[in-house]
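Why do we care about 3D structure at all? Because function follows from shape, and shape follows, mostly, from sequence. That is the central idea of this module. The next example makes it concrete: a single protein chain, its amino acid sequence, and then its structure expressed as tokens.
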Amino acid sequence: MMFGFDDSFAMLDVTPVENFFINEYLPDAKGDYVKVYLYGLMHSYHATESMSLKQMAFDLSIGESDIESAFRYWERRHLVKRVKDNPPEYRYLNSKQQMMLRQNESEDQRKYQLFAEELYAAFGDRRRLDGKECALAYEWVEDLGLKQEVVLMLINQLILTKGPQFSFRAAQKDALQLVDEGVNTIEDAEEVLSRSKSIFEGTKAVLRRLGKRHSPSDDEMSLYKKWLYTWNFTPDAVLEACRETTKGTPSMAYLDGILQGIYRRSGSMGIRSKAEMDKTISNEKSKYDGLRKLLHVLGADTTRPTEAIDEMYKEMLALLPEEALLKVAQQTARYGGRLMELEQTVKYLASKGIHDNAGVTAYYAEHYAMMQKTAELLGKMGLGARPSARQTQSVKALIDSGVSDERLAEAAELSVGKSEPFQYFLKVVQNAREKPEYSHAAKAEDASPQYKKTGKTPREANYIQRSYTEEELSSFAKELLKEAQEIEIEE
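And the structure:
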């Protein structure tokens, strides 16, 4: 460069500052912002290659972040333009030129400019807005018809509840809510926004009670709003219900299910206090004691019985008293049965005229005795298999018709070695019933001529007859009951 100033020239030179700046901009600016503007202006006239934010902060005894905030302020006032980010570079604009531009602005442009300045001021140093975000917020004024003051109140509340980095696009839903609620004045806005703030704080309190430390999401606040304004619970009642979530994994969804059940059972009036909620929960615990005991016997979840399960329980109680029902549940659980199997068993017992504890006791005693007798007969036939329900039912039918134990045993022994021993057994018994004079010798002659010819005892006749314990029989009782019910249907 051919020409330049001596290094000491800047110290003795002057920096021109327009009176327009002093009159229009200086009164509203912070002292440190004015210091930064003037110091930057001086270095615009007398450039120093080594100048940086760090050096400027040192020279002015101001933090670097404060210097950046000052330049953002002057950017919003259109006196400085940022042309580079890393490292930052700024260009000073002529304040007289800005004055002439402002004179040519329309009224709408001036309104937007004032709104933008207040919007930037609301965030301060906490966030740097871009033009699109500012324009979107102004659309709420122009397109939705909200007052600027209302929009700025909304922005300040969102900063308070969601933090300065909230999404403007997501916030549009809040602006639409203000329109839907007919907000026209500052007072209207204060009332609606105050309610929104209480929902935020209430949701946050519930989350803390559930052991959660995150900020409430929109979905979580929607749930809380529903509990208060649709289901008419009070904040204290909601917090009291949180203790019921300890029976599972505490969450807003789990709490929603608990409150939904209480709401349906208590009616639409709602629960107005912590004491009312505590009383309701205690009463429901007492109400469901019998059902929980039954579910415990079946090995099922007892934490929160559903309404469908409660209705099923009531229907079973209409057929059997609680003591008898628990006894049937114990027998059902022994073979791995659950609630559906229990319901089927209770209905089956009712169809047989069994409606009390004595009847249930007698049924299972007879049931296991008959299973034991059938198992013994199968052993005599050379079968090691456990008796099926159909086989047990057939033997019971024979005994009920008057066939003696001796005749049953003889028929079983004659069935050894047959391809279908049990069916052969039934045929022998039937023949004996039709021909009373039919002797054991004649049966042997007709039924097993091959034994007489060979004179040998078949290998199957040497099987050890097995005696089943009650525990062994109960292990396959589910299958027996199912087959027995099928027999009843076929008959």
